[in-house]
Amino acid sequence: MGKLTKTAIDALAIPAKGQAFLWDSELRGFGVRVIPSGLKAFVLQYRNEEGRSRRIVIGRYGVLTVEQARKQAILKLAAVVGGADPAEERAQSRAAITIREVCNWYLENAEAGMILGRKHRPIKASTLAMDRSRIETHIVPLIGTRQVRALRIADIEKMQMDIVAGKTAKPRKEGGRGGKAAGGPGVAGRAVSTLQSLLSHALRYDIVENNPAAGVRKIAGKPRTRRLNATEIRGLGEAMEIAERNGENPTGLAAVRALLLTGYRISEVIGMERSWLHADRGYVHFPDTKTDGQVRPIGQAAIQLLESLPKKRGLSLFFPSDFVDRPYSGVPETLRALCAIAGIKGVTPHVLRHTFGSVAGDMGFSELTIKALLGHGARGSTQNYVHIDEALRLAVERVSTKIENLLNGRESTILRLAA
């Protein structure tokens, strides 16, 4: 055992189970702990005035350097000499922590990249934005003042039903999609999922002593089945022509058409960069999507649309904002305007994605193929299909061509799509 150093900590073997320690030879009781997940944390072991052995976590290795942790350990040992008991103080602090305080801790640390999410990577900005919305709109207003230790499953399930009933519904902020941030089963279930996740992170980092949301039963949301039928797709195409003549934003119009022709998520379309498109091989390489990096097939109709878009201010995006260097954000508003012209109701960007998959299903393509088209399949499987299986190339080409013909009024055969 020698002086604790970065080199020594990096070389510390990860145990198969339990925990392993490496202690400093110069500062008694100061060390680092490693657990099977690979997480390493600085710890301090000491005896309080009653002679009881206590151990506290100072902080995570990587967040704190060895010297920063050593200084904190010295300060805490000095407090122990003066009669303090840091472990007891921390226990009392954890016992009194509220949901609001845990939410603030989660948002602050997740934004700093200090909390690991899926596949042991920092939580994505898009995921964090949705978490923040649920926290600020539903979780904190309903149970933010409650102490975590006193919270019960029944309390959280009541929160869920309050969200379903619309008790946290409110007007959306200016610049949003308009209307109200409403409730409903889907919204309520996702709010509970966010609460379960952030409390799980807080428990792992020793911020709370328990996760009262762990056993909550989430209410099932209604499956989203809305899709455009052939007549509605034609109507949307006619509305695009009218809107173009009336001066509707061309970027928004092109983005709506791209959503229909690709079946991609709205975030994927507006965030797509020109270097990601491999037109000669018929695919788009997304470095990072909702389900991690993916290679996704794309038909010629969509490729021609993308290649026809003019570059703006030298930006790499296909759909940049007109005024700032970021993706265009007005697609929902453009879609609402088009639907108003066409007399179509209940259409969101996700409905366009669902329409693409539904057209593929009506054309006889298998569920596995449709999942690959939409990016629902495993990453490896999707890549293999794009690079090897010509059936997937044929599928995306036929589906995008079918939708393009309907938009342009060239499709004579009525698709048997549900209204």
UniProtKB/TrEMBL annotation:
Residues 167-187 are annotated as: Disordered. It holds the Pfam family Phage_integrase. Residues 223-398 form the Tyr recombinase domain. It comes from the Bacteria. Signal peptide: none annotated. Keywords: DNA integration, DNA recombination, DNA-binding. GO terms for molecular function: DNA binding. Residues 178-187 have a biased composition (Gly residues). PROSITE patterns: TYR_RECOMBINASE. Belongs to the 'phage' integrase family. PANTHER family: PROPHAGE INTEGRASE (PTHR30629), PROPHAGE INTEGRASE INTS-RELATED (PTHR30629:SF2). This is Integrase arm-type DNA-binding domain-containing protein. It comes from Novosphingobium jiangmenense. The lineage of its organism: Bacteria, Pseudomonadati, Pseudomonadota, Alphaproteobacteria, Sphingomonadales.
